Amino acid sequence: MKHPGDQHTLELPEIPLLKKRGRPAIHGKPMSAAERKRRSRSMQVGRATRDHNQRLPKALSVEIDASLHQRLKRYCEANGMTQIETLEQLIQTLPEV
Question: Three-state secondary structure along 42-56?
Answer without folding.
Answer: HHHHHHHHHCCCCCC
